[in-house]
Write a structure and sequence with these properties.
Elements: H1 5-14, E1 23-27, E2 33-39, H2 42-45, H3 48-60, E3 67-68, H4 73-85, E4 90-97, E5 102-110, E6 115-123, H5 132-147, E7 152-158, H6 162-170, E8 174-186, E9 189-194, E10 206-213, H7 214-220, H8 222-226
Parallel strand pairs: 6-7
Antiparallel strand pairs: 1-2, 2-4, 3-9, 4-5, 5-6, 7-10, 8-9, 8-10
Helix pairs in contact: 3-4
Amino acid sequence: MNIPRDTRLVRILKGLPDGSGARLPVRDRDMTTIGFMSVFDSFRLANNKLVKTMAAARTRFGEFFLTQFSVTYENKKSWLRDAVLHNDRKILFIVETDGGKIVGQDGITLLDGESFMLDGTMRWERGGHSSLFERTGIERACIGFGLFGRCRCVVNIFKDNKFAVLNIESSGFVVRGEYALSRTERDGRVIFEVAENPECANTDKKLVEYEMCRNDFADRYGAFIDSPCWEGIV
């Protein structure tokens, strides 16, 4: 069977069908390793303590997501299995300090066309380099541009998420659009969606879309393109 290149690369990084996911370095401006991004794999899925931690973190930081609800161990494990591990468009990374302590997660999703999205960011433990989560964004962007050959990187953030906004703007992303949101409640979930007509928005919250193109990334982070974090793995 002829497997598409992107699918093959995603599965290699995840260690599928029965191996371990890749462990990729996170580097500072001087290319010194300050932490790691471990690709979520079947062994992580079997780690009940980790899954429980991720479920609790998703509930605790739910205000930063478009869909907000109380996440249980069961539905978190199902989501990790179906929407992450068996999804050939999404990669979830477990973020570790340079000493190996797990402090959070990050993600990347391949979109239709020539774009990809940085998503799923949560820091649920203290520790590690002060710029760790800023630099994971750079490494993930490099993966999207360099490994998957996409032309445009997108990040969607609530406007009032000041820490995330600071990180993404300091990394060189620029605002592409700002959108009014509508808030609804369905089946115990609070759901924010972009309002078709801004005048009909029923909440003051705004969603900001940031973007960076491949040429701008290469100009700013050429060293990462030349020495990619996945070198020797795929």
